[in-house]
Amino acid sequence: MSTPNTPDNNHQTTYTPPKVWSNDKENGGKFASTNSPTAGARHEQSLPVGDAPLQLYSLNTPNGIKINILLEELAELGLQGAKYDAYKIDISEGDQFGSDFVAINPNSKIPALVDYTDKSAPISIFESGAIALYLAEKFEKFVPLEQGRARAECLSWLMWQMGSAPYLGGGFGHFYAYAPEPMEYPINRFTMETKRQLDVLDRHLASNDYLCGNGDSAYNIADMVIWAWYGRLVLGELYDAAEFLQVDDYTHVQRWAKNIANRAAVKRALTLELSPIS
């Protein structure tokens, strides 16, 4: 039998958690230098504010791309009130812990958005799902507004993404691509869940063009936020994991993902130029 924190016969280590956790060692991984068990600003940093009604502070990660897509879809409709300036929050450099950004988003995650339509009372919004819903309702586009089946379905899939993507990004993506060393148990655990989620989507999309129905009018914010993660995953654009996850097996997700990828607004969203904040 192996003893705590020593190799066993399979060259793996076991770990016995202490009675009280302490942050007393390097946790490793790609973002180790910015990880901390505490919140709040770590340095003073002013954020630029442009002339457009909407100010986006983000990064072109899956979470950031969600809002890029919606803003570009609104731009495609020619909505003047949806014009925006976009600024880069470099999470690898700790920009998310600057004082101005933390004032907008106390959780220090991208994206964050400020609506200056009423300059005397700007509105700050954080969490990508909240931003997507806020913008869709503000402009009455890409979300059913009336209570009923269509709205309930859209919000259900929107919340599905918010609850599911952490298993894909923070779970599978972290342990498969970013952890300091490969670990069989977490990779297997989160691969199982990622494939289950892809199967959920594939079964649903077998009888639906989009998440909430058929025809171009069914395309809405649920598709946008889910595509930024799962669409790009099956198209081989996340974690270099397409072969590992056998993404070609999810034929209905593939069809949906390719259809959305061909939209002009989505193409622009993927390459959106973000201005530096300093």
TrEMBL record:
Residues 55-143 form the GST N-terminal domain. Residues 150-278 form the GST C-terminal domain. Gene3D superfamilies: 1.20.1050.10, Glutaredoxin. PROSITE patterns: GST_CTER, GST_NTER. InterPro entries: Glutathione-S-Trfase_C-like (IPR010987), Glutathione-S-Trfase_C_sf (IPR036282), Glutathione_S-Trfase (IPR040079), Glutathione_S-Trfase_N (IPR004045), Thioredoxin-like_sf (IPR036249). SUPFAM superfamilies: GST C-terminal domain-like (SSF47616), Thioredoxin-like (SSF52833). Residues 1-16 have a biased composition (Polar residues). Residues 1-45 are annotated as: Disordered. NCBIfam families: PRK11752.1. PANTHER family: DISULFIDE-BOND OXIDOREDUCTASE YGHU, GLUTATHIONE S-TRANSFERASE-RELATED. This is Glutathione-dependent disulfide-bond oxidoreductase. The lineage of its organism: Bacteria, Pseudomonadati, Pseudomonadota, Gammaproteobacteria, Moraxellales. The gene is yghU.
